[in-house]
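To: structure desk
From: M.T.
Subject: fold request, one chain
Message: Could you run this one when you get a chance? Sequence is below, nothing fancy, just the single chain.
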Amino acid sequence: MTDFWLSAGLLLLAALALLLIPVLRGRRRQQLEQDRTALNVALYEERIVELDAQHRAGVLDAERLAQGRAEVARELLSDTEGAEAPRAGELGRTVPVLAALLVPALALGLYLHFGAADKVELTREFAQAPQSVEEMTTRLERAVQAQPDSAEGLYFLGRAYMAAQRPADAARVYERAVALAGRQPELLGQWAQAQYFAADKHWSAHLQALTDEALKADPNEVTSLGLRGIAAFEGERYQEAIDYWQRLLAQLPEGDASRAALQGGIDRAATKLAEHGGKPVSPAALSVRVTLAPALKDKVRPDDTVFIFARASHGPPMPVAARRVTVAQLPVEVRLTDAEAMMPQMKLSDFREVELVARVSRAGQPTQGEWIGQSAPVATRGQPVQTLTIDRPDR
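Reply: Done. C-alpha cells follow.
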C-alpha cells in the first residue's frame, strides 16, 4: 500500500506543478511589463525636464517647446501600446492556488469513498501465503465484506469456517452462496454438511432433502455421499454407510490422501455390522479395461466418442451404468457402479449379471456407432478387472 500512496503523491506533485507554474510565469511576465512601463515614464519625465531647461536658456522658443513635448508624449504612448495588455480572463493568483489545493483534496476524498483501496490491499495480502487458518479466515472475511455478492468468496469462507470448527458460521455463509449462485450440487452438499455439524450431528428431514437434491443433480457429489455415510454410521445403519462410502471411494483418484481414511471408515462400518450379526454386502461394481484393435487405429479419429456401458444380460437394452471417453484416451480403465446409473430406478446393483459393451460412435450416439466390442455375461460383484477390445463393425 505504501507504493500506491507514494505513486499517488508523485502524481499530485505533477498536478500541482501544472497548475502553479503557469501562474508563476504569468506573475513574472506581469512584473516585467510593469518594470518596462516605469522605465518609459521615467525617461519621459527626464526628457520633459531637458526641454524645459532648454526653453529657459533661450535655446527653444515656445513653439518648438510644444513640438518637443508632443513628440516625447507620442514616444511614451507608442512604447506603452507595444506592451502586452492584461488578459480579460485573468483569474489572478488566489483562484489557481485554491484550485491546486482543493482539487487533489477532492480527488482523494472521492477515491476513498468510491475507490478500491481495500481491494488493492487485499490483493497484496493474498499474494502472500497465510501463516495460519485464523489469518486465512480473517482475509476471507475481509474479502467477503469488500465483495458481498461474490458467491466464490462466500464458498471459500465457508470452507475456512469448517476448517476452524465453526460450522454454524459456515452454514450461514453457504446459505448466502446458494442464494447468489443457485442450488448447485456442490453448494448444497457443503451447506448440508455445515448444518449437520452445527446441529451436533443430528440428522433431519431438511438435511435429507438437501442431500437428495444434490445427489439427484449429481450422483457423484462427494460431500453429500460422505455426509450420508457419516449420518448412516452414526445412526448404526452400517451397510448403508458402507454403500455410500464405497460410492465415494470410487470417485477418488489413486494416490488421494483421503482414500486411506475413507477405507478405514468402511472397515469400521464392516466390523460394526459383523458385531451386530450382519455381513457386509459387496457393492455392485465392475472395473473394465478397454482397448482398440490395432487393425482399427487408422479407421478412427482421436476425437471419436467411445461409450463404455453395462446392460442387463436378460432384460431391457438400456444401459444400467455408462461412462464416456474418446478414442484418444484408449486404452483406458474405468469403474462402473451405481453412481454411473442412467436412471435412478435401474442401477447396476439391481442385476446379478450384465454384458459389457464398448462402442465407437463418431456421431456421439450411444445406441449406434461404427465399431464395437462386447463381453460375455459377467456377475456384477466380486469380479477382477474385465478386458474389452473394440474389434469389429457395429451392425
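Reply (cont.): Confidence is low (pLDDT under 50) at residues 83-91. Let me know if you need anything else for the meeting.
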